[in-house]
Amino acid sequence: VAVMFRAVPQAFRNLHGSSIPCSARKFSKRADKNCIVGDKVAVVTGSTKGIGFAIARRLAQDGAHVVISSRKQQNVDQAVATLQGEGLSVTGTVCHVGKAEDRDRLVAKALEHSGGVDFLVCVAGVNPLVGSTLGASEQIWDKVLDVNVKSPALLLGQLLPHMEKRRGSSVVLVSSVVAYMPIPKLGVYNTSKTALLGLCKSLAVELAPKGIRVNCLVPGLIKTDFSQVEKTMPHLLPDMNEIYGLFGEPEECAGIVSFLCSPDASYITGENIMVAGFSSKL
Ligand SMILES: NC(=O)c1ccc[n+]([C@@H]2O[C@H](COP(=O)([O-])OP(=O)(O)OC[C@H]3O[C@@H](n4cnc5c(N)ncnc54)[C@H](OP(=O)(O)O)[C@@H]3O)[C@@H](O)[C@H]2O)c1
């Protein structure tokens, strides 16, 4: 085990040699931020709205070509048009992350740009149930685990051959503060988000020898359609808002993802990083 962990930093130290065109240190001033993740291709799932859209926009602003995706064609079209209208380099395709044929389509679309992929950000997640954990049907369990937990691993498996040949590849999973602090009546969802913390750790160790870093963003309460009181987190939000401060904005989750993809994060892998106004982790 000790040998394995010694290999982790070594693998990453070798990644960012002189062939990296845009050093984040060199371009760390805001005026120069276009090259933070420049010349790279990023795939972002669940990226037509909310947190995923903010991350896609930020990665594109920081110089990456970004492949947008979500379940609905009209959402993809709208998101792509909006970001292209801002002069950003984006393309998009429909991808329900739980469907194998959709993941194939996303991989093919991503490879169109330059034949490889540098970053995968898995944002898509669902919560179809507000109710007791033990009352959840097998279909509910399957849906939540398929979309939230299995799909990032399956998609990464498909992208791996196209990522490992690039230098400095990086994966960011998206968990939730409920992974640490479960919300009653969201037990299946809570569980899926805790599983992602472990998936992050396992993948980080497994992919270190290939020079691929894996980290996990852990958002708190973020103002999006998903977190609307009536939809997902009934009656508990006012209390949580009082304890943990105001809701965050999707944009407040985006800079950290760009950083985690950048060479400045070359010695960071396997981390679960909270963006929640406060961290309940020791
Ligand atoms: N908002 C929060 O407070 C909060 C806190 C912690 C963690 N999170 C996590 O952050 C992620 C994004 O949440 P959000 O608040 O940004 O949600 P949102 O604003 O509702 O956006 C969800 C996005 O994901 C897409 N999507 C939904 N199901 C999908 C699927 N099966 N395959 C592919 N795309 C799918 C949606 O587009 P289509 O409808 O076109 O598919 C949309 O683009 C989720 O994983 C969620 O668990 C959110």
Automatic annotation (TrEMBL):
Catalysed reactions, as listed in the record: all-trans-retinol + NADP(+) = all-trans-retinal + NADPH + H(+); 3alpha-hydroxy-5beta-pregnan-20-one + NADP(+) = 5beta-pregnan-3,20-dione + NADPH + H(+); 5beta-dihydrotestosterone + NADPH + H(+) = 5beta-androstane-3alpha,17beta-diol + NADP(+); isatin + NADPH + H(+) = 3-hydroxyindolin-2-one + NADP(+)
Keyword Manganese: no
EC annotation from Swiss-Prot or TrEMBL: 1.1.1.184, 1.1.1.300
Record keywords, A-Z: Oxidoreductase
InterPro entries, A to Z: NAD(P)-bd_dom_sf, Sc_DH/Rdtase_CS, SDR_fam
A Pfam family per the record: adh_short_C2
PROSITE patterns listed in its UniProt record: ADH_SHORT
Gene3D superfamilies: NAD(P)-binding Rossmann-like Domain
GO terms for MF: all-trans-retinol dehydrogenase (NADP+) activity; carbonyl reductase (NADPH) activity
Protein function: NADPH-dependent oxidoreductase which catalyzes the reduction of a variety of compounds bearing carbonyl groups including ketosteroids, alpha-dicarbonyl compounds, aldehydes, aromatic ketones and quinones. Reduces all-trans-retinal and 9-cis retinal. Reduces 3-ketosteroids and benzil into 3alpha-hydroxysteroids and S-benzoin, respectively, in contrast to the stereoselectivity of primates DHRS4s which produce 3beta-hydroxysteroids and R-benzoin. In the reverse reaction, catalyzes the NADP-dependent oxidation of 3alpha-hydroxysteroids and alcohol, but with much lower efficiency.
Family per record: Belongs to the short-chain dehydrogenases/reductases (SDR) family.
Protein name as it appears in the record: Dehydrogenase/reductase SDR family member 4
Species name: Jaculus jaculus
Gene giving rise to this polypeptide: LOC101605425
